[in-house]
TrEMBL record:
The gene is map. Removes the N-terminal methionine from nascent proteins. The N-terminal methionine is often cleaved when the second residue in the primary sequence is small and uncharged (Met-Ala-, Cys, Gly, Pro, Ser, Thr, or Val). Requires deformylation of the N(alpha)-formylated initiator methionine before it can be hydrolyzed. Binds 2 divalent metal cations per subunit. Has a high-affinity and a low affinity metal-binding site. The true nature of the physiological cofactor is under debate. The enzyme is active with cobalt, zinc, manganese or divalent iron ions. Most likely, methionine aminopeptidases function as mononuclear Fe(2+)-metalloproteases under physiological conditions, and the catalytically relevant metal-binding site has been assigned to the histidine-containing high-affinity site. Belongs to the peptidase M24A family. Methionine aminopeptidase type 1 subfamily. It is an enzyme of class 3 (hydrolase). Substrate binds at H117, H216. It catalyses: Release of N-terminal amino acids, preferentially methionine, from peptides and arylamides. This is Methionine aminopeptidase.
Length: 289
């Protein structure tokens, strides 16, 4: 759609197009003509949507803070699921994983060689030395947020602790590489370079994703890549960065018993941290952590 200079801007800011997104659209048009991949308008969030996602993210952060306080050896992952469900619902929100494409629980809990999408169970008991990813996603007032953290149960091996630290720093570097008018490949390269320099590998089969109006939107955010390649990043884009880092090879397989849980093919450990981020006019803002 084309907008007249004096029409109200498509972002619903209430400002005239010429004062709002006109220059922005012109910049994107030029980049597209130069052969770059540019974001479609429907994944660029306006202020009202950003405010909604921020409120969802506050609840999502609250869930993870609660899990951080309670998680311990001897606890089942079903107990974590209950904590997540109860906190979320009591704050007027919905756990996004519950019934999402048939997922049976409110949160993903992935232990040791599980890469992601672990399903909480009364039969899975956390034990000393485990490393656990708890991946929480929240819908509040229709807006989605998504974040995950690693937890070390009791005393883990030096190697497990190093993997958890490297995956955390990989996310930090990915976020740092995200800039308005930069490229998705800037994020991928920053993560991949750091992870591989530490002797680990980056999972290819899963990545980050646009988020906010739906659970999974465009773009797919690869955690490998080349600087200057992939979709252009512009203010108003909201997506996750969530590198999965394997101690061994990056290959994974999905558990045939439940069709969800991904594990490392070689049985090595895997770790992951995830933020939901917003590209702003001047940089990047972490919305859910
Ligand atoms: N939270 C996961 C992500 O980061 C998605 C989980 S889908 C589910 O994208 F159904 F397993 F919850
Ligand atoms: Co995600």
């Amino acid at each position: 759609m084309n907008f007249g200079r004096n029409d109200e801007c498509w972002c619903k800011s209430g400002q005239k197009y010429k004062k709002c997104h006109m220059e922005f659209d012109e910049k994107l048009r030029k980049l597209r003509n130069q052969g770059h991949i540019v974001p479609p308008r429907n994944i660029i969030k306006n202020q009202e949507q950003i405010d909604g996602i921020k409120k969802s993210a506050q609840i999502n952060d609250g869930v993870l803070d609660l899990v951080a306080k309670q998680i311990k050896a001897g606890m089942s992952t079903a107990e974590i699921d209950k904590l997540v469900y109860d906190y979320t619902v009591s704050h007027g929100a919905i756990p996004a994983p519950l019934n999402y494409q048939g997922f049976p629980k409110s949160v993903c809990t992935s232990i040791n060689d599980e890469v992601c999408h672990g399903i909480p169970s009364e039969d899975i008991i956390l034990k000393d030395g485990d490393i656990v990813n708890v991946d929480v996603s929240t819908i509040y007032n229709g807006y989605y947020s998504d974040a995950s953290r690693m937890f070390i149960i009791g005393e883990a091996s030096e190697e497990a602790k190093r993997l958890v630290e490297v995956s955390r720093e990989a996310l930090r570097r990915g976020v740092e590489a995200a800039k308005p008018w930069g490229y998705l490949g800037d994020i991928g390269e920053a993560v991949q370079e750091y992870v591989e320099a530490n002797g680990y590998s980056v999972v290819r089969d899963f990545g980050g994703h646009g988020v906010g109006i739906q659970f999974h939107e465009d773009p797919f955010v690869a955690h490998v890549g080349k600087r200057g390649e992939g979709m252009v990043l512009v203010p108003g884009m909201v997506f996750t960065i969530e590198p999965m880092v394997n101690q061994g090879a990056y290959h994974i397989f999905v558990d045939a018993d439940n069709d969800w849980t991904a594990l490392t093919e070689d049985g090595s450990l895997s770790a992951q941290w995830e933020h939901t981020v917003l590209i702003t006019e001047t940089g990047v803002e972490i919305l859910a952590k």
